[in-house]
Specification:
The chain is mainly alpha-helical. Helices cover about 70% and strands about 0% of the residues. The chain has a two-stranded antiparallel ribbon with strand order 1-2. Helix 1 (about 1-25) crosses helix 2 (about 25-55) and helix 3 (about 65-85) packs across helix 12 (about 225-230).
């Protein structure tokens, strides 16, 4: 365990160094990329923010509560961008469909360790996360929230759960690429996009049956709405442990399916290197 932790931090250091070198050697394009990521992330939450300002409340949440929820969504975007965007780590179907999983199988580090560290870009990918911190701080002041260490601990825990939910959801659907690499190459993009595009939507105004669907089968509400309401102390018609239950359930399903897909990949390989390969 200690050796693995040391290796993980060493790999994080290597990724951070490479990211810093890009900033130092090509500052102009790096800054443009940072601004593009920030604009892209803010564009997904700006519409809901403007609607909340126009109507004062949506789905049982006031405009200030929605601002807090959007801050949580922005933090989540920032974490995903910093840890899982580079090298298609968060879009594993691309790696599988293109036959690039072979490259990871020959590396001296286990696959789980590579997936955990290969996407780390703390310099070029931190703008959205910093914006999320600003939104959380500003909305907390407007709501007169005194966030103590325990509250911050819960915030970090809920963020980790939401990250796991997003990428477990992505990996579950990405397993299609083990069996249909051409058709399934971009399935993770659609899976992550579904949760990303709707994560800032307050679900309190829709029927309870749909709330159940959007917090379990399609866990859109678990990416911002549900954890934000827990942090705000708003009463929901769900158990307070639902976030943990959904996180563990999706993680277990993703692990089982991914291992099964790896066994199939080990026997069948990838058509990328065959004469009929679509990306040879």
């Amino acid at each position: 365990m200690v050796a693995n932790m040391k290796r993980i931090f060493a790999l994080y250091g290597i990724s951070a160094k490479l990211d810093l070198l890009w900033f130092l050697r090509d500052t102009k394009n790096c800054v443009l990329n940072i601004m593009a990521d920030l604009v892209s992330s803010l564009s997904t939450i700006l519409a809901m923010f403007l609607l909340s300002q126009r109507f004062d409340s949506i789905g049982g949440m006031s405009s200030d509560h929605i601002l807090f929820m959007l801050g949580f969504a922005c933090l989540l975007d920032g974490l995903n961008l910093m840890f899982f965007t580079m090298n298609n780590v968060g879009y594993i179907s691309r790696i599988i469909g293109r036959g690039q999983l072979d490259h990871k199988l020959i590396q001296p580090n286990p696959i789980w360790m590579q997936l955990l560290t290969d996407g780390f870009i703390p310099f070029s990918g931190s703008s959205t996360f910093l914006c999320g911190i600003g939104l959380i701080a500003f909305s907390s002041i407007k709501l007169n929230l005194n966030l103590n260490i325990l509250d911050i601990g819960f915030l970090i825990f809920y963020l980790i759960c939401s990250v796991i939910i997003i990428f477990s959801f992505s990996y579950i659907f990405s397993c299609i690429a083990f069996y249909a690499p051409v058709a399934g190459e971009e399935v993770s993009t659609a899976a992550v996009g579904l949760l990303d595009n709707l994560k800032g939507f307050p679900l309190g105004g829709i029927p309870y049956q749909l709330q159940i669907i959007f917090t379990t089968i399609l866990p859109i509400g678990m990416t911002a709405w549900y954890p934000a309401n827990l942090l705000l102390g708003n009463k929901l018609n769900f158990t307070n442990y639902l976030l943990i239950i959904v996180t563990l359930s999706l993680l277990l399903i993703a692990t089982i399916l991914f291992r099964k897909g790896l066994k199939h990949y080990a026997t069948k390989g990838s058509i990328r290197y065959a004469d009929r390969g679509h990306r040879r």
